[in-house]
Amino acid sequence: MIDEAGETRALIVEDDPNIVDLIRSNLAVRGFDTVVSTDGARALRLLETEAPDIVLLDLMLPEVDGFELCRQIRERSSVAVIVVSARGGERDKVTALNVGADDYMTKPFSIEELLARITATLRRTRPVAAAPEAAPPVITIGALVIDLAAQQVTRDGRAVHLTPTEFALLRELVTNRGKLLTHAQLLRRVWGHGYETETEYVRVYVRRLRAKLEADGGPPLIVTQPRAGYRIAAE
Questions:
Q1: Nearest CA to 104 among 157, 56, 158?
Q2: What is the pLDDT along the chain (235 residues), one digit of tens a residue?
C-alpha cells in the first residue's frame, strides 16, 4: 500500500491505452493524481507544468528514443523515474540506469510489483528530512563536503548535483566510512527489500558517483572490493 502518497502525482509516459488504464485505475484508488503523455515532447512539457513526483516511462514510444527522453527528463529534474519496458535485456537496463532511471521493470508486470516499486522509489527520492543520529551532519573527505541534513555536496567549493538515489547511496557509504558494504546491503538499504539481486544497480550508480565526485588522477573515493562490495577508505 502507498498510504503515504497523499497528493502524489504520477506522469505516465506510455502509448498503450490498456496499460495506461491499468496503471491509472490502480493508482487512483491509492490517492494518486495521474497525468498521461503518449509522446516525448508532451512528456517534457508536463514535467514542467505538472511537477510530478514520479515518472513511469515506456521506452518504446513512437517518434522518440526512450533512452534520450529519460536523459532529458533527468537533465531537467530530480523526479523519480521508473522505466517500464518490454525490452528485458541487461544492456537496456544498464543503459536506462546510466541515463538516470531510478528503477527498471520489464513488461509484463504485476500491478502489485509496480506499486511496491513505486513505494520504494518514492521513499528513497523523497526521504524524511533528518540525518542519521549516529552520523555527523557534515562529512568532509578531501575536497568533498557532504551535508547530510541539507542533502548537498560540494567539491572544491562548487556544488555537485546528485539525484536522490545517488545521494542515498553516497549517504550509506560515507556514514559507514571504512566499512565494507556488500552489494546486497547497499541494495537493501538504498533501493529497498526485493532488490538484493539487482547488483547492476549498484555498479551503475557507483560509476555515476565516481564520475561526479572523483578528481581526475586523484585517489579513488569509492574503493571496490572485487566480488564483495564497496567502501570509502577510512580516515
A1: 56
A2: 344 445 899 999 999 999 999 999 999 999 999 999 998 899 999 999 999 999 999 998 888 889 999 999 999 999 999 999 988 888 999 999 999 999 999 998 999 999 999 999 998 877 554 444 555 689 999 889 999 988 899 999 999 999 999 999 999 999 999 999 999 999 999 998 889 889 999 999 999 999 999 887 778 899 999 989 999 988 7
Kind plus residue range of the DSSP H or E element containing 159:
strand 158-160
Cell of 157: 567549493
Cis peptide before 108 (omega within 30 of 0): yes
Query: Which distant-in-sequence residues (6+ apart) come within 8 Å of 181 by Cβ?
Result: 172, 173, 189, 229, 230, 231
**What does the block give as the cell for 115?**
506499486
Strands (E), 28-68: 33-37, 54-57
CA-based angle 184:185:186, to the nearest 5? 95
The alpha helices in 182-232, defined as continuous H runs, are 183-186, 199-213
Q: What is the pTM of this model?
A: 0.84
Q: Which three cell numbers stand for residue 96?
A: 536506462
223: Cβ–Cβ under 8 A, 6 or more apart, which residues? 230, 231, 232, 233
Measured CA to CA, the distance from residue 47 to residue 39 in angstroms comes to 12
Compute the radius of gyration of the chain from its Cα atoms: 18
